[in-house]
Q: What sequence folds into this?
């Protein structure tokens, strides 16, 4: 495939006896926004976590920007390769002892070795980009969930990742706070950021994604542009999944 | 039996010397013990197997043997292998090594109880394990460490009385010296208890101040 920035081959993961990922193949093109949908327990989150090795897969390979993750092996290599991914967690996982600015500046400062003033300036840029210019000196506990998640997005962006991974970024939010996070993500996609988004927000998947991937039973069972996938689903499991969503969507 | 106020009046200034020595021993041992405990605690989180085993063996040994025996080992056994420490330093080393083991467990526990998502977030921005520990986990672990650390420092201060067994002229030893010449065990031991109680109360008060002064979020 041309311009494939992420290439996943045969990725498999087992928790005890149960395969949660079963020989996953996936390619993501530079600049593409891909959403992964599927019922709980279908392996979406585990897939994301195996990509940047928060979870160690049992088989298969992940390569990003031409580098095979985990090769050559070693803690330091892995840490450096993780930089290629930005990761946004369902529960934000901001550092509670640091202000928004410090949260975002920590990585550039300590991991990339950027001088303090420059790291702060970069943090401020990224925070303004997610509309948080007013809240730079607040700690996570002083911010709403939606604001916290946007700080988390800024924290990931400050590392200049090649690919952003979002793990159900709005699932832990009160309904009225979902939109501001989705807006930030939409703007990011419009900027041409390559994104892989696990989500239950079908409207977002429909309107922002270039491509939708449907997972069921630890496998990718259907993939296609949202127009096709949502209007003419072929796999019966996807048809069932979409029917269940209909009343809420 | 009459309470002998005369001996009390006589003992109070003499015991002051003992208090100073107890404070000296405790403070030096506490500083050393904190350093040992911090290093050992971090070593046990390092994921470097030999280090983890070493710390486990150390903690296990300290927990499994009486402090008095540890003091005697430092004082009587080390000279056999050529390390001869004066009473004061033998006592300090024994107390520090002893409390270091418990402090290592406190450090390990407090760092380990920081929510797992914190490590994951730090790893996701490219940090190595030592960086995660230093920049993300430890700063969040200080405050919850204070109450158990206080307990340990209180124990250490009280345990310093065991150094009387190797003739360190601390509070208990000073009291015993008075008892042996004036035979007033009741008055003197009561006085000693009061002295220790006041010392410990001051320590507990300082710890509460410190805990309140550390940032919460």
A:
């Amino acid at each position: 495939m041309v311009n494939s920035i992420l290439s996943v081959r045969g990725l498999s993961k087992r928790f005890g006896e149960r395969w949660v990922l079963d020989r996953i193949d996936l390619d993501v093109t530079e600049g593409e926004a891909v959403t992964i949908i599927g019922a709980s327990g279908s392996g979406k989150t585990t897939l994301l976590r195996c990509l940047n090795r928060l979870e160690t897969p049992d088989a298969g390979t992940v390569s990003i920007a031409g580098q095979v993750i985990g090769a050559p092996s070693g803690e330091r290599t892995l840490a450096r390769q993780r930089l290629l991914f930005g990761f946004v967690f369902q529960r934000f996982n901001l550092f509670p002892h640091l202000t928004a600015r410090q949260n975002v500046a920590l990585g550039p400062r300590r991991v990339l070795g950027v001088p303090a003033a420059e790291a702060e300036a970069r943090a401020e840029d990224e925070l303004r980009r997610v509309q948080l210019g007013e809240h730079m000196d607040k700690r996570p506990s002083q911010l709403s969930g939606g604001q916290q998640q946007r700080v988390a997005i800024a924290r990931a962006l400050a590392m200049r990742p090649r690919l952003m991974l979002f793990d159900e970024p709005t699932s832990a939010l009160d309904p009225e706070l979902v939109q501001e996070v989705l807006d930030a993500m939409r703007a990011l996609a419009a900027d041409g950021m390559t994104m892989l988004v696990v989500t239950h927000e079908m409207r977002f998947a429909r309107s922002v994604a270039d491509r939708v991937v449907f997972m069921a039973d630890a496998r990718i069972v259907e993939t296609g542009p949202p127009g096709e996938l949502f209007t003419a689903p072929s796999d019966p499991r996807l048809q069932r999944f979409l029917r269940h969503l209909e009343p809420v969507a | 039996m009459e309470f002998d106020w005369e001996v009390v009046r006589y003992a109070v200034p003499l015991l002051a010397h003992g208090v100073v020595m107890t404070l000296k021993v405790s403070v030096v041992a506490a500083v050393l013990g904190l350093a040992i405990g911090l290093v050992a605690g971090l070593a046990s989180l390092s994921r470097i197997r030999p280090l983890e085993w070493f710390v486990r063996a150390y903690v296990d040994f300290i927990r499994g043997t009486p402090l008095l025996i540890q003091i005697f080992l430092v004082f009587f056994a080390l000279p056999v292998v050529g390390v001869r420490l004066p009473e004061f330093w033998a006592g300090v080393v024994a107390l520090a090594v002893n409390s270091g083991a418990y402090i290592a467990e406190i450090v390990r526990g407090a760092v380990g109880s920081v929510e797992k998502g914190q490590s994951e977030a730090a790893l996701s921005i490219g940090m190595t394990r030592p960086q995660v520990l230093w920049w993300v986990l430890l700063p969040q672990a200080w405050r919850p460490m204070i109450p158990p650390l206080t307990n340990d420092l209180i124990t250490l201060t009280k345990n310093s009385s065991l150094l009387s067994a190797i003739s360190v002229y601390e509070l208990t030893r000073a009291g015993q010296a008075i008892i042996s010449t004036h035979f007033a065990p009741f008055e003197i031991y009561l006085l000693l208890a009061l002295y220790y109680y006041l010392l410990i109360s001051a320590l507990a008060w300082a710890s509460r101040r410190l805990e309140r002064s550390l940032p919460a979020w």
In short: Chain B has a mean pLDDT of 93. The interface with chain A takes residues 115, 117-118, 120-129, 131, 135-136, 139-140, 215, 217 of chain B (CB under 8 Å). Residues 5-213 of chain B form a domain with the MetI-like fold fold (CATH 1.10.3720.10).
